[in-house]
Write a structure and sequence with these properties.
The protein has 16 helices and 24 strands. The chain has a 7-stranded mixed beta sheet. It has a 6-stranded mixed beta sheet with strand order 15-22-14-21-19-20. The protein has helices at residues 2-22, 26-39, 46-75, 106-115, 162-173, 220-223, 285-293, 308-312, 342-350, 354-358, 391-400, 427-442, 454-462, 483-486, 504-515, 519-536, and strands spanning 78-81, 85-91, 120-123, 126-129, 132-138, 143-148, 189-194, 197-201, 246-253, 258-264, 276-282, 299-300, 317-322, 326-332, 366-368, 404-406, 409-412, 415-416, 418-424, 446-452, 469-475, 539-545, 547-552, 579-582. The chain is globular. The relative contact order is 0.14. By secondary structure, the protein is an alpha+beta fold. It folds into 4 domains: 2-75, no CATH class; 83-115 and 244-322 and 548-583, Periplasmic binding protein-like II (D-Maltodextrin-Binding Protein, domain 2, 3-Layer(aba) Sandwich), CATH 3.40.190.10; 117-231, Dipeptide-binding Protein, Domain 1 (Dipeptide-binding Protein, domain 1), CATH 3.90.76.10; 326-545, Dipeptide-binding Protein, domain 3 (Roll), CATH 3.10.105. Helices cover 32% and strands 22% of the residues. A hairpin with a 2-residue loop joins β16 and β17 (409-412).
Length: 583
Amino acid sequence: MKIKYFVLNKRLRAEKQIRELQNLSLSDVKKRLFWFAKRLPDIVHLKELVFFTFFFSFVIFILFVQRYKDLDNYFIEKKPAFGGLYVEGVVGSIESFNPLYEGLNPAEDDVNKLVFSGLLKYKDDKPFPNIAKSWEVLQDGKVYVFHLRDDAKWHDGQKLDAEDVVYTIQSIQDPDVRSTYSGIFRDVVSEAPDPYTLKLTLPASNPSFLSNLDFGILPRHLYEKTPGRNMMVAKQNQSPVGSGPYRFDKIEKKQSYSQVFLNANTDADAKPFIAKVRVRTYGDEDSMIEGYAKKEIMAISNISLSKLDAVKKLQNITFLERYFPRYTALFFNQKSETMKNKNLRTALALSVDEKSISGIFDKEKVLNVESPVVPGHLGYNKDIKDMEYDPSKAEEILKKDGWVKDGSVLKKAGKELRVSFYTSNTEEFKSVSESVKEQWEKIGVVVDLTYLDSKPLQEDHIKPRSYDVLLYGITVGSDMDLYNVWHSSQKNDPGLNLSYFSNSRSDKYIELAQKSIDKQKSEEMIFKAQELIMEDMPAVFLYNPAYIYGINRSVKGTDISKIIKQSDRFFDIENWYIREETR
């Protein structure tokens, strides 16, 4: 019994001494060893001599291992190596791939960014070379001349040249194609003086023009015989051929999910380190989170604020955050007979308690937005505010407009005040829309709330503008160009004027702001356009949520600190890596 107690006591003392030694500096270790050495003459028992001999040997071994590791880290450097598989999860569906329709399906946008490449890349409000290696801006910003790389190839081995870019721009301009980029390239003349020179002539100067040139370029030799009206459903969209960092291999469609298989483009200007990439779809965010826990995927894009706590419990995950120039708003569709009534729009706006909506989420993950220009961008005016929450005033306005309470419901001439309310089938939008619905019902409005997945929401409601109210998120870009969302020419698809807002004076200010090379003048025009937009009450601006990207710690080299939209997270995917090797 005494021997067991002695051994246990000595072992505990040894463990304590070792823990202390691990935290000592080299000079402290020398002092400790000197102290033990002085004690050696006092050791008279054999068992203590054995113990101290073992202890000294173990200490010397520990010091040797620690010093070896230090030398290993100092002299042996690791560098990224080619190989590995990266799998990312997204919520939604994936059917086809065509970069001319960016913004209609975020999941497809992600794949398009990996397969196709643009003239330029854009990050931190700055353009970077991509297919174009250099460019000049001439004639006070009306003419752009781009010099293309002569080594760029399509994934099928064909050379990529300026005629491909001209074809892509002309396709964007074709009204039958209905590209989401059509407003940007209206009246732009594109020419190819030689195979590797592109000339773009604008009708007027546009200082923000370069920021729009990251659109994916289409291979002319594969699409030139496709009629514009068939572009969205072209068979080439099922097996895309691009010039980006990854080649399309196949799409696997199962009953509950789809999975896109991509291989590294070894002919790319900057060859990716990660050999294979897969993008896997999920029906909802809960399923995607479960997929990460099961190790089906290695990253979760666009984590909703309501699910962040659940995702934080996952193992081996790190989080990247970024605020994009975007906002979530309630858009009142003035194409609808119901919403043409400004008094009704005003009453609905007064009945939205924005503070309670923001309170649904972590305050550190949400920025308040009160106008079409988000804080920190050109034209932002802190004095322009949304209406303060005042349901009593809202009821007064509706009463003067002829609406009378019949029980808990407002009616006029026997007809209920009813609005159709659509939004995306995500946890974030569900939470917000439910809160808004409750607030409107309190003043007597009957709300028909519908959640839809991205594709049916786009095809059946957003494109034909079939809704009274739409809760939706808009990414406006780094230059805060109001044209695509608030110019009257963008009221119909593929424009993004979701409120069907129209004002000739506002249009004029938006055009002047877009064309001016004088920053101060542009800001003045944006101020005036904002005032007219807010006066008409076409929307209630709610918040700007943080974009949160959860990614496995085994994936290194990622950086989203300067990107301006979700799909831009792959801006420098060629620098991401999983495997390492010694130099």
